[in-house]
Amino acid sequence: GDSTSKSNNKDNGGGEKTLVFGRGADSIQLDPSKVTDGESIYVTNQIYDTLVRYVEENTEVKPALATEWNVTDDGLVWTFQLRDDVKFHDGTDFTAEDVVYNFERWTTSAEFTYYGYMFGASEDDMGGIIEKVEATGDYEVQITLSEPNAPFLQTLAMPPFGIASPDAIEEHGDNYFKNPVGTGPFVFKEWVPDDSITLTKNEDYFGEVAKIDKVIFRVIPDNGARFMELQAGTIDIMEGLNPQDIATAEGDDALQIIRRPSMNVSYMAMNMDKGGPMSDKLVRQAINMAINKDELIALYEGVGKEAKNPIPPSLWGFNDDIEPYAYDVEKAKALLAEAGYADGFDITLHTFSNPRPYMPQPKLAAQAIAEMLKEVNINVEITESDWDTHLATVENGEHDMAFLGWTGDNGDPDNFLYVLLDKDNATVGSAGNIAFYKSDEVHDILKAAQVEMDQDKRTELYLKVQEIIHEDAPWVPIAHTTPPLAAKSSVVDFVPHPTGSEPFNLLDIKK
Amino acid sequence: MESVKPLLEVKNLHTHFFTKTGVVRAVDGVNFDVKPGETLGIVGESGSGKSITAMSILGLIPSPPGRIVDGEILFKGEDLLKKSENQMRQIRGKEISMVFQDPMTSLNPVFSVEKQMVETVLAHEKVTKKQARDRAIELLNLVGIPDPSKRVKNYPHEFSGGMRQRVMIAMALACNPSLLIADEPTTALDVTIQAQILELFKKMQKELDMAIIMITHDLGVVAEVCDRVLVMYAGKPAEFTDTKKLFDQGKHPYTLGLMNSIPKISPNKEKLIPITGLPPNLGDLPKGCSFAPRCKHVMDSCLSIDPTLQEIDENHFVRCLLYEESKKAVTT
Amino acid sequence: MSIEPIPNVEVEQGKVKSTKSRSLGMEALFRLLRSKTSIVGLIIILILMITALFAPLIATHDPTVQSIPNRYQAPSSEHILGTDELGRDIFSRIVFGTRISIQIGLIAVGISMVVGVFLGAVAGYFGKWVDQIVMRFIDIMMAFPSILLAIALVAVLGPNLRNAMIAVGIVGVPQFARIVRSAVLSVKETEFIEAARAIGGKHGRILFGHVLPNSMAPIIVQATLGIGTAILDAAGLSFLGLGAQPPTPEWGAMLSDGRAAIQHAPWVVAFPGLAIFLFVLGFNLFGDGLRDALDPKLKE
Amino acid sequence: MLKYITSRLLMLIPVLIGVSILAFSLIHLVPGDPARSILGEKATAAQLEALRNELGLNDPYVVQYGRFLGHILQGDLGKSIQSKESIGVELIQKLPATIELAIFAMVIAIVIGVLAGVIAAVKQYSWFDNISMTVSLFGVSLPIFWLGLMMIWIFSVTFNILPPSGRLTTGVELNTITNFYLLDSILTGNWVALKDAFLHLLMPGIALATIPMAIIARMTRSSMLEVMRQDYIRTANAKGLRKTIIIFQHALKNASLPVLTVVGLQFGLLLGGAVLTESIFSWPGVGRYVYLAVLGRDYPVVQSTILVIAAIFVFVNLITDILYKYLDPRIKYE
Amino acid sequence: MSALLELKNIKKHFPLKSEKLFTKEKPLLKAVDGISLSVRSGETLGLVGESGCGKSTAGRMALKLLEPTEGEIWFKGENITNYRGEQLRKLRREMQIIFQDPYASLNPRKTIEQTLAEPLKIFGMPKGQVTQRIDYLLDVVGLSSYHKQRYPHEFSGGQRQRIGIARALALEPELVICDEPVSALDVSIQAQVINLMEELQAEFNLTYIFIAHDLSVVHHISDRVAVMYLGKIVELGDAGEVYSNPKHPYTQALLSAVPETNPHREKERIILKGDLPSPANPPAGCKFHTRCPFAEDICRVQEPELKLVSTGGQMAACHFAKEVVTEGNFT
Ligand SMILES: Nc1ncnc2c1ncn2[C@@H]1O[C@H](COP(=O)(O)OP(=O)(O)OP(=O)(O)O)[C@@H](O)[C@H]1O
Ligand SMILES: Nc1ncnc2c1ncn2[C@@H]1O[C@H](COP(=O)(O)OP(=O)(O)OP(=O)(O)O)[C@@H](O)[C@H]1O
Ligand SMILES: [Mg+2]
Ligand SMILES: [Mg+2]
């Protein structure tokens, strides 16, 4: 926010390589522990390192600040060996104490959203399942859990758990969020709010030093305008492409489309809590059958695949044996008749106006579904509201049917199934499970899977859960998207990560 | 007096307005002349074409819809109607200037009096700004504005109605015109102020050798300041003669009706004798004499024959069939 | 009695064409019909009204029926204005959209007018503290950025067409109130109002029988022009996703929905916009002519 | 004069208080709350509650409003709940963007509008009059957002001659001093940036200018026609002044008075009304800022920014009033 | 003759808009500053004076269309100063007003019939009689019943003034205040209306307060005349007396300023200096002293009372009125 200097460097004669990344919104804060928005995390992921990082292609983990680790058999005590050659961008050394400092900081306020959410913190118990974090040596940290947590390691790889420089935190206090200091491949340089954030490469990075010298994240709110900027060459790569523009980009030699692997799901939840037709399984199945997914998916303009399960196929534990409900209007009508709704009924469908990565055109999808359900005499009234209003509405269970979606955080099936479909999360007012699907059977299995440390056994359990859910049909699973990015053809080695953010130290710009 | 060459001669002037609803014959055959140094009065009811006659002389008829369709206006022997806009601009404000009815609205409210006077002088005379300013102050002094060198800086709204009319007159006198047209210069003023302004006019005329056309609908004003009078009715002259003659032996029924319908301050109150009916619509005049529908002495022929202006006596012109000997004979 | 009657000049001149007399309103109507622009405006409005009335006959397709495989088709003989993002016929949607737009225009302006006229009339007529209170309130609304006011109102009430109309209506209130107030203020001072008081008329009678009828001209003009503004505002709200709910063929929403496709299917954006433009233009042309016809200053 | 200004300024206070109450009430009535907006869909009920407490959102409305007013009175606009940044600092960035755009649009509107209006009035009923007045009716009938999109389609997509969004091309360097980019680039002698900033201003500027331009043109015309009928114009003619002097001095100065009021009003409206234009051209101004704040339930930002916009609006109108008085000697200050 | 209407020292002070925010004392415009008059039944009282001297304001107060700031109004022996609401409306039957501007005084959206019917309806005349009464009224003012369906804009100024008169007469009032009823009319029409008014007065035994600034008209129509200057009456008396023998220097100047319609007579003129001072800021002492050719020191400080200056009941407000009487031809 300094108003005296603002500079957007272009690679002038010296061969300095700058990557301009176009996106739709600005970061909110550059303190990853406090944010949940993708735009913030995308940037902090360049600045900070976590103890472990995801590998390039999927959500398996690899060493980062921690070189190795082990866990006791009961799954409660984790010990991490840390690198001893790492310096924060402010020049201070990275040690085990810094890790402890960060963990302790995350338990001081509700603002550290992800910590609380991933480790089950509450107002009374800010630590959640993490009992204690101790430095057992200069470069060794021990974390003790109160209960086993199968996805723990993957969770630690999430960007919100990036380790920040305690010195900088102390120094900047409330303004730390705009003066981020981490250990990552890029160093924070400048932030002009709502315009751009500039990072420069960290020459002393302990991992692979970046091939480009500078990254500028530029805010261009409108998808169409952003694409035009790309066409004009003023940005190098962009996310949030309008599906309609994909064909244009593909037809342009200077441009390429990069599809991010899917780790999300979009769905239409049917509120089982309200009584009425939605509490009848037959109705829910009928609705599943009445929807022509092929056409619906067509609206994704090739950026999505039809969904049949709540979790994306890229995740382990995906049950590929499940046969999706086939599009069959007659059968749907029959089911409805059986349920006593031969004449159909009136119902609301809540949707949201801002496109989300898992649902680029919610308004179109809603209209398409409404039109399809008309065939089986179900009369849908669409209510479209802004994102915040929508969330409030669906969490309060005011809807009959509602669109929503989920992007995985750590690549664990639990992060989908438990969060979205367990009865624990079906409380009115703060529901993650907005179908208010309350199956004890599902609950028991999911709980068991959470404490089971053997992945094969967990897989078994998750396969089973998916069957039950398929049968009970609380949702119409819609799609798993592969959100497209468009880039100049000169951008190479950009490997998009399913979690939605990838460090830029590996990519390069070819002249 | 007979041999003096007239300063201005208006011959058979016709100024019409071509509006959507028809042709308005605002001025329809007006003849008169003004001799150097004399004051000519033009009287008539509202809408009788007094102002349009004046505007025609200055070439300021809004066009469209107005147009001078016929006639000659000879000023110092030259026909003004033949002059170009540029030439006319040289004459306006310099040779012929004009004072309007409403002093409240005739001065530009956003400019100081100084600016408005100076620009007039500069428009016509090759003098410096300084000289123009001095002239402005001198003129304001002449028309009786106290402390003129200070007041010249003021804006019009800072003057009262009477003062503004003095300023207007001063402005009109800026380039020593040989003819001043005053269009109802006192109508908007109170009687006591009117008396002041009329006094000023008399003084000006005495001091500067200048002819004046005084347009008014007040016969009192005419009696007071004019040498000769033109009475107009519905765009046409009704009677044209010396002031005294008009009051003593006015001939036209309209003139007489006018005189009878105004109350006089005299010890014995007489009943007013109004002219009946309404002034005609200039866009749709009746056939024959336009005064016929209201005329007490109307004859059959009046409804079909439009009389012409006749000199019935020396310097006494009347436009009425009663006085057109030949026709009168026929009817009586 | 010896009172001389005024001869009726017109009768005497034998030019009375009919004994029927014209009210000021009729005079204005004749003047209005003489102006070319207002005729054009009137024609546009009539065409739109007819379109709205006979929409099912004029439309070539069902405005909500989708054909996803046929989305984004360029104008052709089958779809004369092409198809939209769900393969619906744009022409038919625009045709049905006229109904929505007319509804928006009338209802929103109706709200502004009723509230605005009431506030303005009361403020202007009673003056003093009533005026003070009403005008401060109007000042506040004026100072509040109007589109933000509309956005906030819709956000509060919930985004749908009805609420968008209410919001647009409320936003239009100050305009009416001010216009009515100043009209009332000037009419209030005229001698015929004083005459009405002098013959013992009560406030209600004077306000509604004399003052308001004579303040009608600016109200009518503002109402006509206001319809255009209301449609633009409502379209703006829909454009921001705060207006008509899908699949309502509201023009602003259509434009907003088609926006993403501007590069490869510009017709999806171009035609609804053109429709809004035409509609608003119609009312503006008409309102403009109406103003000239009703404005006594321009009267010859 | 000074007295007049002070008393006028004092009279603004109740209006601004009213605006702040209205803004406060409206934004608090919008469903949803900032806590959810900050923490996102993944937060738990407990986290939300904790944050609401932290932010003081659970206090009674009166207390919250009092706190807000208290800050304002101390000249503190508060902090954005979303970005944690001081709203004052953010506005220093965004207001200039909007004001620059608004001024640019207004300059276009005034220059073209007044000129067209004067010519149309002087040549009443001529082809120029007819065409310019018809075009100006088009101007007020165009949905700006549509015009914006169409301009982008034509000038950016089809012909690629104007930039579709933003204030500067990425890569063009500019040291900012005032955040008015045109001014800054002149101050720093940066001609590349000047040209670039100017090109970026063109489309949004024109889009934003259409309505005021049309209104000004029509207002100037009718005002000129009115003035040209006045007695003092007849006087000026009778004095033998040149036509140009009569039109551009005598008539225009008088005719400019009502136009000035319209200009003031329109300028104020542009500031608050740029939401659509700013969102189409991705212009980083206050319009978008407060619009996003409404969507994000960023209460302090909505309240303070609307208050600032309202203050500017009334201030601009005050300035036009003062200018009016300056131009019209008939109006006295006391 | 009994007094039909009596004004006792009535004043009307209009508050002027002050742009100063925190001042208690608001500047006042003293439109009428203490006038007392009594109007006798059946007479015509002329009220003359220059523009802005408060004639209309006084007239409106008499009718209670304006609330006096001070003073009392008595009508038929009753103090009506504090009449409100219903009481006041009843009073309306007995006092009416005719306005100056024939164009502004009729509601342009109502037909003549509607305009004339309104007062009748307000006072509850049965429907059947209304039409009849309107026809009668139109006849009385010299219009025909076929004019009923017309709108005001279809009439000339003189005709409209007749309609205004008809409206005033609709309720059969006793007192009619005529606020410059002819000054907007052309000379030829003016006489028609004056004659009409005189005839109506005789016919219906009306009492007129006739406001005008045209001295000849006032002279013609009035029995008595009151001359106003800056919110005050400076001279009051029998019309013939006042015109032939004015006692107040202002009246003298006023009369001398009237242009003489006889070109043969040269009149002795008193040309007043300067302009009418503003009623917002009137001079102290005698309000006329700034323009008075005879002003002396006392005039600048002391305001003269209206006092009897002749046996005929003529009154004048001048310190030197007596002296004028003795010096003049009234020995
Ligand atoms: N621009 C115009 N268009 C049409 N008719 C006009 C126009 N200007 C004047 N007239 C008509 O010309 C006639 C004469 O007008 P003029 O102003 O000369 O009257 P006047 O004798 O000066 O009256 P007044 O005493 O009211 O000033 C009137 O009937 C008027 O309606
Ligand atoms: N409602 C009002 N508010 C403020 N001042 C007023 C009001 N009505 C009249 N005045 C002022 O009071 C003074 C007397 O006005 P009034 O109308 O009585 O004068 P008048 O003698 O009738 O003049 P005229 O001959 O012009 O009609 C004037 O200076 C006028 O400006
Ligand atoms: Mg005239
Ligand atoms: Mg008066």
TrEMBL record, chain B:
GO BP term (any one): peptide transport
ABC transporter domain location: 8-259
UniProt main location, coarse: membrane
Topology within the bilayer: Peripheral membrane protein
Name of a matching Pfam family: oligo_HPY
Record's GO cellular component terms: plasma membrane
SUPFAM superfamilies the record matches: P-loop containing nucleoside triphosphate hydrolases
First and last residue of the signal peptide: none
Keywords: ATP-binding, Cell membrane, Membrane, Nucleotide-binding, Transport
GO molecular function list: ATP binding; ATP hydrolysis activity
Domain of life: Bacteria
The keyword ATP-binding is assigned to this record: yes
Compartments (UniProt record): Cell membrane
Keyword Membrane: yes
InterPro entries found in the cross-reference section: AAA+_ATPase, ABC_Ni/Peptide_Import, ABC_transporter-like_ATP-bd, ABC_transporter-like_CS, Oligopep_ABC_C, P-loop_NTPase
Family of this protein: Belongs to the ABC transporter superfamily.
Protein name: ABC transporter ATP-binding protein
The species this protein was found in: Ornithinibacillus bavariensis
From TrEMBL, chain C:
InterPro entries: ABC_transport_permease, BP-dependent_transpt_permease, MetI-like, MetI-like_sf, OppC_N
Claim: Nucleotidyltransferase is one of the keywords in the record: no
Segments crossing the lipid bilayer: 39-59, 100-125, 137-157, 219-244, 265-286
Domain of life of the organism encoding this protein: Bacteria
Keywords: Cell membrane, Membrane, Transmembrane, Transmembrane helix, Transport
Entries under NCBIfam families matching the protein: Opp2C (NF045474)
Identification of the protein by name: Diguanylate cyclase
Protein source organism: Ornithinibacillus bavariensis
Lineage: Bacteria, Bacillati, Bacillota, Bacilli, Bacillales
UniProtKB/TrEMBL annotation, chain D:
Residue intervals of the ABC transmembrane type-1 domain: 95-324
Family of this protein: Belongs to the binding-protein-dependent transport system permease family.
Subcellular location: Cell membrane
Membrane topology label: Multi-pass membrane protein
PANTHER family assigned to the protein according to its UniProt record, in alphabetical order: DIPEPTIDE TRANSPORT SYSTEM PERMEASE PROTEIN DPPB-RELATED
Keyword flag Transmembrane helix: yes
Membrane-crossing residue ranges in chain numbering: 9-30, 101-122, 134-155, 197-219, 257-281, 301-324
GO cellular component terms, semicolon-separated: plasma membrane
Residues annotated as signal peptide: none
Main location: membrane
Name assigned to this protein: Peptide ABC transporter permease
Keywords per UniProt: Cell membrane, Membrane, Transmembrane, Transmembrane helix, Transport
Gene Ontology BP annotations: transmembrane transport
UniProtKB/TrEMBL annotation, chain E:
Any Pfam family matching the protein: oligo_HPY
SUPFAM superfamilies, alphabetized: P-loop containing nucleoside triphosphate hydrolases (SSF52540)
GO molecular function: ATP binding; ATP hydrolysis activity
Gene3D superfamilies per record: P-loop containing nucleotide triphosphate hydrolases
Keywords: ATP-binding, Nucleotide-binding, Transport
GO annotation, biological process: peptide transport; transmembrane transport
InterPro entries registered for this protein in UniProt: AAA+_ATPase, ABC_transp_ATP-bind, ABC_transporter-like_ATP-bd, ABC_transporter-like_CS, Oligopep_ABC_C, P-loop_NTPase
Domain ABC transporter residue range list: 16-255
Superkingdom assignment: Bacteria
NCBIfam families on file: oligo_HPY, PRK11308.1
Protein family: Belongs to the ABC transporter superfamily.
UniProt name for this protein: ABC transporter ATP-binding protein
Organism this protein belongs to: Ornithinibacillus bavariensis
